[in-house]
Amino acid sequence: MEYTGSKYIGEYVDGRMEGKAKYILPTETVYVGEMKDGMFHGEGTLYYPNGSQYDAVWENGLAIKGTYTFADGLHYDEKNWHYCDGYDRRFFTEIRNGLKPAGMAQLTNMDPPRKVPKGWYDCGDGFYNPVTRVIKDYRNRFLRNADDDEHEWITRTCRKGYTEIVGHRPKL
């Protein structure tokens, strides 16, 4: 554990992680469920730092059946997924709470939307600086470096910040 940055709280059998457990990854994603021979096995849930979760049945470390739930409560349905597709472009909060009156556009699923720092982009899991190509989460922690494809997608499709935010400026 000390080499991976992970933390394990749970039962051991013959020196291996086995039984009911809580496994915390360095990304702050937390698995709570059954382990067998050091792997996720049986029923277990991954809780992500953004508030979403994946409830699954695991077999030897692989999810064989599961359900993903976004932080806002929207459940992903692999077969009947119609959320924000070509026919219905509403955000989940608009589906759940209704549309705003004409002239009051909702820009993101979060209402009011996050304020994006000037020159940066809101890419869904954090803010993106196109100069350094670094994506930081909404708490200003490093997430990843964007490759050429992600850079192009973010600058083409994501919301860009155009005004200075008083008291908040992510570090370059």
TrEMBL record:
<keyword id="KW-0969">Cilium</keyword>
<keyword id="KW-0282">Flagellum</keyword>
<keyword id="KW-0677">Repeat</keyword>
<dbReference type="GO" id="GO:0031514">
    <property type="term" value="C:motile cilium"/>
</dbReference>
<dbReference type="InterPro" id="IPR003409">
    <property type="entry name" value="MORN"/>
</dbReference>
<protein>
    <recommendedName>
        <fullName>MORN repeat-containing protein 5</fullName>
    </recommendedName>
</protein>
<keyword id="KW-0966">Cell projection</keyword>
<dbReference type="InterPro" id="IPR042814">
    <property type="entry name" value="Morn5"/>
</dbReference>
<dbReference type="Pfam" id="PF02493">
    <property type="entry name" value="MORN"/>
</dbReference>
